[in-house]
Design goal:
This protein is mainly beta. It contains two helices and 18 strands.
């Protein structure tokens, strides 16, 4: 058998089933071209990996200098149901993320995933049906960084604690940063719109070390009435720090120019009323004079 050796520092993507040699023990892997330009969430670029429903793709990074990757997942329409894992060796999974989004085009998933200390493999599974493929973009450079407000607005949450945060209609995206003091990180992030019965996005995550492998994501919140709920799903002794702040705002004031009111026709003064005004003004005076004269 033969195996293509990837260039050091470049990722490799797992082959499709048609590329696996029947009866062989080693599958050929092809170098994944490094992206030259970043594509906005929900769009595709030359390096986009399409994953059909029920499928999985793995991306391996051979350089130990790479300490984080930026992952974006989106769908053309309909729900997005995916599982993301970081592999270190055959039996070590230091990070797991489960994502469900009602509309993967309107609210795509994006997060910065830490990969410290050595080569790592990123595995992305599409748990949806065949009719719901997803597009995955993985970037190794220019990953978004938490803002100064985000890194200075931590709230301590013990295991089992719940935090609810509503946002104004002008907020178009929100930063979420979760970490621990080195202990495992177990959390659930929920995005609602209008009420807690209208669930739009769920992120469940596990990290074996919440300091080295903290979680940072930017959630899109288009439209009014969004609420974010953060839950520390660990035991009470596993404390985590959570920061949730607005990331971007709608530049418009959100109010459209009201159409001009139609002009009212001119009203002639009432005959015999003795003053200017509509014809029905003064009728009560005339009626009272007629009754009590």
């Amino acid at each position: 058998t033969m195996q293509l050796e990837p260039v050091e520092g470049s990722p490799t993507v797992s082959p499709s089933p048609s590329q696996v040699q029947q009866g062989g023990t080693t599958a050929l892997s092809q170098p994944l071209p490094r992206p030259r330009a970043r594509a906005p969430c929900g769009l595709t670029s030359a390096s986009t990996i399409f994953i059909p429903g029920g499928g999985m793709r793995t991306i391996s990074y051979q350089t130990p200098a790479l300490d984080q990757v930026h992952v974006e997942l989106s769908s053309r329409q309909g729900p997005l149901d995916s599982d993301i894992e970081v592999w270190r060796g055959p039996d070590w999974t230091p990070c797991k993320i489960r994502v469900f989004i009602e509309d993967g085009k309107l609210r795509p998933f994006n997060a910065v995933i830490k990969t410290p200390r050595g080569p790592s493999t990123l595995a992305i599974r599409n748990l949806a049906g065949m009719e719901h493929p997803i597009a995955a973009n993985v970037f190794t450079e220019d990953a978004p960084e938490p803002s100064a407000e985000c890194t200075s607005s931590y709230t301590t949450m013990s295991g089992g604690a719940v935090r609810m945060l509503p946002f104004e209609p002008s907020v178009q995206s929100v930063e979420v940063l979760l970490k621990t003091d080195g202990r495992p990180l177990n959390a659930r992030i929920e995005l609602f719109q209008g009420s807690t019965s209208n669930l739009k996005k769920v992120i469940e995550l596990y990290s074996e070390d919440g300091r080295e492998r903290l979680f940072y994501s930017i959630l899109r919140t288009p439209g009014p009435g969004h609420i974010i709920r953060i839950i520390n799903t660990a035991h009470p002794e596993y404390v985590m720090s959570a920061s949730v702040v607005p990331h971007s705002y709608d530049e418009s004031d959100g109010e459209e120019d009201a159409p001009p009111l139609p002009s009212l026709p001119a009203v002639k003064p009432a005959l015999g009323s003795g003053h200017e005004g509509p014809s029905n003004v003064g009728w009560l005076d005339r009626l009272s004079k007629h009754i009590f004269r």
